[in-house]
């Protein structure tokens, strides 16, 4: 009985852990919030023990926050160096601010120069970005608390204490190593993979009325899984001991992602009257396929439901609980479907689903071996043994890859950091002038708003959307600040407790919603004003006015000074995506046709990164408030088509990577001919995107599907793997042709 209760408790903890891991991959948001709050709390405790007054407590708390969130380097050694360099930068910044507090013109001019330098040094990577951010934010802190020369020694001491407390929390209390982050991201990938499989199983019972909602969940689950895969890829270099291990994990993550996405498509096909369109998984609001009551009558549906549950169990079961006959039986049964063993009696589309379950089970087994080490082989069946041998052969073929040549960076004003530095300097100058007219004491809020709308933005449209979200969050935060200020009154430590709570919420919600983050920032500042005895309704309303002014100055500067229009930005990124798509497709098909091996996984990763950049850049076009509905629909459609292309290109790359290790997969030179037209069409679209006057057109011709038809005797012309490659090429060709219409590329009539 006790053992059953203990096992139930462990099961509840495991489910809770998996849910948290899936909602916050790598626990990055939770760690950022806890580390920042911990640093502030420790700084407040130390300063209070030395008898610091409220002004020094507020300055120390804000400096501890800045010292913690500004540093984004992954390696602990690099974090320590940046934190050590940040302290003299912070001390110099607050000292200059105190010295210039009575010299308005010189102080404002220095602030603009500081802003320019803080943005300009971003070109030096994470360290330059962190030092620039520390210099600017600490200068702002000194303005906020009204730093003067008479109180400068105390402020310098408070800031030094804040940096020391930040170091203690970062390296001792809430440490974060690259290997630890990667381990938590792996757990998040498993949890999200299990969630996606659970959503796929809902397709079995979804009727005509519920299919749209199920498809929406399927799209979200597929996107979340891909997001986690990209996060893992970005951490592999620092979190793994060597390049071969990194490539092995990257390969297994890619295999599992592709297999899971393919399984969802096979289930959709089984539920619909014809082969499901890949676009259904990528385009919000895409029409759902017509579905019947059940993908298969009778026993086959129950077996599908059972096997999807078994697959989910294989994904989630921790390594310590992964031994035993029961789990081995599940694994062996699912892997048997790969060799056509015990396929249930059903229509071909449903049997394809069972084969897809077998392929996904094989990818899950490879993932477990890569992440958890060797597995128990005592109960292996011949089918499982063959899968292990294939995985071992693939592992042996993986090497460290080749070094990539450094990319040529733009120079002068074409460099993004230089352009942004000029823009934000001009915008800040306007914000200072306008802010001084609104308030001679709190003009710096306008400068802060202008500064923030330029962070992590690259076009006028992105700045416009971010400014709107900043103002909206600030307005809501003012309302909360008014209520909280009345409730807290003169209770200093209750106010500091709420400040810590809001700071945690600010960092936890920042990646999810910029509006929410702005809300918590403003509510927190209302409490800080209360602590400094400068709170009033007029002060909070002034903050809204200054924020709106600063956002407007940022938008004006972005639109008039070295502007980058959203159309230009998206066209540049679209051209990069098409270029990467060509590289992946040509490289994969060339290798599948017998060409030399290439580093296809890294090329596919570059495609995913380019597509992610494009997706972020189109947010101003797809934002709900945009009045240009047709343009929004076009942008969503183009991005969805490109995601479809990327999925099929990744699948081709993954299949090509198997070629050297699998004798059952033979090179087929005929594939080169099948892809030529598709590659020419991608290049034609890219040329039209780069130059609207380019006289290019896309070609039509016989469908690649025609190559899949059997010969006159009914014998298939290609093997199963080559047939799958041709299916991917067919869908890729259709998606590329679909890009021609919204991008204005004419279609040439078919050649006779």
Automatic annotation (TrEMBL):
This is FUSC family protein. It holds the Pfam family FUSC_2. Residues 369-418 are annotated as: Disordered. PANTHER family: MULTIDRUG RESISTANCE PROTEIN MDTO, P-HYDROXYBENZOIC ACID EFFLUX PUMP SUBUNIT-RELATED. It comes from Streptomyces thinghirensis. It is found in: Cell membrane. The chain crosses the membrane at residues 27-48, 54-71, 80-98, 104-121, 128-145, 151-173, 444-464, 519-541, 547-564. Belongs to the YccS/YhfK family. InterPro entries: Memb_transporter_dom (IPR049453). The keyword Phosphoprotein does not apply. The keyword Transit peptide does not apply. The lineage of its organism: Bacteria, Bacillati, Actinomycetota, Actinomycetes, Kitasatosporales. It comes from the Bacteria. Residues 391-402 have a biased composition (Acidic residues). Residues 431-556 form the Integral membrane bound transporter domain.
